[in-house]
Amino acid sequence: MDPFEAGRARALGSLMRDLEAGRVDPDIVPLLSLLNSSPRYYTTSSCSGRIQLAATRLPGEKFRMVVVAKWHRPLQPRELREVLAASRYPDLWMAVQGPILHVACRSLEAALALLEAARRAGLKHSGIQGLGERVMVELLSSDRIEAPLRLGGVDVMRGRVLDEFVERANEVLLRAKFRLDRLAAELQKVIGGGEERI
Questions:
Q1: What is the DSSP letter of 63?
Q2: What architecture is domain 3-191?
Q3: What are the structural domain ranges in the chain?
Q4: What's the pLDDT tens digit per position in 127-156?
Q5: Radius of gyration for the chain, computed over Cα atoms and rounded to the nearest angstrom
Q6: What are phi and psi of 36, to 5 degrees?
Q7: Is 138 helix (H, G, I), strand (E, B) or coil?
Q8: Please, which residues have CB within 8 angstroms of residue 43's CB and are 6 or more apart in sequence?
Q9: Cβ proximity of 59 and 127 under 8 Å
Q10: Which helix (H) or strand (E) holds 43?
């Protein structure tokens, strides 16, 4: 078995286990199925987009932050207020992150076709992450918000301002998730009918 096929078999086995355990965002499963139906591609990780509340002094401190809560769906202001009330961290940041997928491609040609489809779908921050026995592509949307909700123990958003912020965060999340449908439509042109679906 060639290295690409060996990696594909491992990745698809892992994906099946994650599906069975309920660790895959349901709204991204059709797209994963489409990508993995082609012998030119396989997915290694994915997220359909999320709203996340994290305890950290500064955003982006991946190894020093604590994820307090996350939602892969629109959020109710009441839910956020409950989490804020229960949290004793002095600094809390809320982030809205659009979809992200990592896809192994059999060739540079396959990777470029995937990137063109992603850009047509609005995932304009996508790019090639690595070249070797496989070409790794990261599909990434530019839809994003990062804002502090608490700094130094002081809540910086309250009442109607917090409600309005949640409403706008939900709009960004839904706009980002809509790009998954557009990406699936563009990939149908690249992949066609594909092989067996997961």
A1: T
A2: 2-Layer Sandwich (3.30)
A3: 3-191
A4: 999 888 899 999 999 899 999 999 999 999
A5: 19
A6: -75, -10
A7: strand
A8: 11, 15, 32, 35, 36, 101, 102, 103, 104
A9: no
A10: strand 41-47
